[in-house]
Amino acid sequence: MEINTSETEASEQWDYVLVADLRTQRNPRQVHQQQQFLEELKTKGFYYKVMEDQEKMFFGIRADSRLFDLYCTLLAEPEGPVPRVELAKPTLILATTRIRIVHFILSSKMAVADTFQDLVKDGVFEAMFPLHKGEEDLKKKWAQWGNMFQEQPLDDIRDYFGEKVALYFAWLCWYTRMLVPAAVVGLIIFLSGFSLFDASQISKEICEAHNIYMCPRGDGSRRYQPLSETCTFAKLTHLFDNEGTVVFAIFMAGWATVFLEIWKRKRAHVVLHWDLYGWDEDQEEMALELINCPDYQLPLHQHSYVRSTIILIVSLLMICLLIGMAHALVVYRVLAVALFNSAFPKKQVTTAVVVTGALVQYVTILIMTKINKYVALKLCDFEKPRTFSERESKFTVKFFTLQFFAHFSSLIYIAFILGRINGHPGKSVRLLGVWKLEECHLSGCMMDLFLQMAIIMGLKQTLSNCMEYLGPWLAHKCRSMRAKLGGTAQGPVLRHWQQNYLLNPVNTFSLFDEFMEMMIQYGFTTIFVAAFPLAPLLAFFSNLVEIRLDAIKMVRLQRRLVPRKAKDIGTWLQVLEIIGVLAVIANGMVIAFTSEFIPRMLYKYRYGPCRQGAHAAVDCLTGYINYTLPVFYTKDFQDPVEKEGSENVTECRYRDYGNAQDHNFPEQSWVLLAIRLAFLILFEHVALCIKLIAAWFVPDIPQSVKNKVLEKKDQRLREKMRTRSTDV
């Protein structure tokens, strides 16, 4: 059945398809709303065609060419190079522009209801989507696993999905390439520890410390563990906690800056190639509003201190909740120690607590992500942004802030709080006066941080990618199988519409979610990289899969994304710059307060055998373990249960600094604290200076791009001069 179609329009391609359930035809109110909506589209210059199968009604929508002529007249800006597929029709507007204009009008307020989404909520319609058309080339040379190492066809992506999607893949491709040097250096730092795997003086002393006993850890443990039992973990810790860690942390600070600066240059080349330097997002949105409604009133910029105060308070409350979730994880780990003491061998309790804690955190992150998105959306709606682009920018800032605390709160706790407020064996700090607080691994807190990073990154890179692909693939297969049971559509047009309908739905946040996933990964790759130098390597392999996975999803498994015009990645660039600064601060604090680097250097040059000069026959770290583990006399235990089995042990050791008599901090602990603070200040200043120098040394926009822009401006002015001379 065809309604309101002419011979010329019926032969042309349809821009959009609306879908409704056939059962709506039994409801007179819904039928009236459908007809009213379609009639309003008709008054705006649209044609439509109605087709149906056994279960659904499909409404093909096509806009009159006058709408697009008006668009070009209002903007009067070149759209850029015409796609190769349309060279035969130079006057034909880009397909991505057609879809963008039609989508804007369909999503705008109508007389029948506020928006199309309101009609969806009322059950009048079910979905709307642009059609996949001409994607065969992208399927062959892009959306295949076999093309994993091939160049991204950015021009083809732009011609089909629009500039915003193309810029996402351009950025992701560049980010993946830049991960190569970071991954290589991180791997070298990690493998360099293997060369000292058995040669480290500290590891030797730990492995030979059969007569040094560590004090019991936790309420369920009454065993005095020989320090030599941590020999393997001590050697493993040296793989990522060595002198190279400082060099790598400084390298990553410079790397993050160079990555962003060169990306700005690459973006400038891409934008020049697409002829988008003269394009303005606000002007485009105003033009679309005028096309949709000539009586459109321009919304002005506004600011409300009351709204801002409420948003700030709610944001702070959410951040407190997220920090509270991290503390809940602490409570879990404390209780898990008590539970696992009866289920696991004593040597494996700590490892089991760390692993399960990371799993619990991963599940918590998945849950809080949905809550954070809901809260961020509500805050954006409450703030009443002027345009869609402004709303997206504000949402990005709010959502990323909440996601940052959701992902990194527990890591901050492990890196800087875990094991530092526990007291000493004779006087332990207890949760609610009952359970002992969790302590660091016997080989140091860097092992806890390393394991937490490895598990979270491993889960995010493997499980997330698997679910990201398998979820849409299985959903598409199930929908297709149900459709086959219902019968095959008659006619190629209806069959094509059905095939697009059976693909997985997309929404406004489909591309946003991909960006957010990469931002969180970038945070893991840079912020605590001093504790996990293999992070860039894992991110590199993950991105190779991610690029192809996103391509397959967009072309084969999902409905066509609505093309959006853009000349940069927007607020995400500021997010990347903030992460770079946070990375400098966090890595400096990890090296200063979590790593053993500063205590080793202090002992080596102030308290060790080399304090008056190096000796060839003596390692400068000889005696380090005995120096850094204070003594606790077992007779001072206040809990009688902990004295069981201690007949042959008169003293034990624990990780901290304290006098054997009163367990107060000795002089060297204050010297160590002062040196740690001095190192932190020096490290951050050096790293930030490197970032500033790199940012100054590498211009954001290449001179060749600036010169081409100048030449175009000069050419345009000369043409106007010639036109004026001819008229005279």
> Stretches where pLDDT falls below 50 for ≥5 residues?
1-11, 77-91
The average pLDDT is 82
Radius of gyration in whole Å, from Cα? Answer: 32 Å
Q: How far is the N terminus from the C terminus?
A: 58 Å
Percent of residues in helices: 55-70%
Biggest beta sheet attributes = 5 strands, antiparallel
Q: How would the global form be characterised?
A: elongated
How many H/I helical runs? 24
**What's the count of strands?**
13
Please state how the strands of the largest beta sheet are arranged side by side. Answer: 1-3-4-2-5
Q: Strand content of the residues, in percent? A: 5-15%
- Structural class label: alpha+beta
Describe the structure.
It is found in: Cell membrane; Membrane. This is Anoctamin. Its main location: membrane. It is a single chain. The chain has 728 residues and is α+β, with helices and mostly antiparallel strands. It has helices spanning 7-10, 28-43, 65-75, 95-107, 116-121, 136-141, 154-161, 163-195, 201-207, 231-240, 244-273, 281-292, 305-340, 349-383, 388-416, 445-485, 492-502, 510-526, 535-557, 572-594, 597-607, 624-628, 667-697, 703-727, and strands spanning 2-3, 16-21, 46-52, 56-63, 127-130, 213-214, 225-226, 423-424, 427-428, 430-431, 435-436, 631-633, 651-653. The protein has 24 helices and 13 strands. A five-stranded antiparallel sheet has the order 1-3-4-2-5, with helices on both faces. A two-stranded antiparallel ribbon has the order 6-7. A two-stranded antiparallel sheet has the order 8-9.
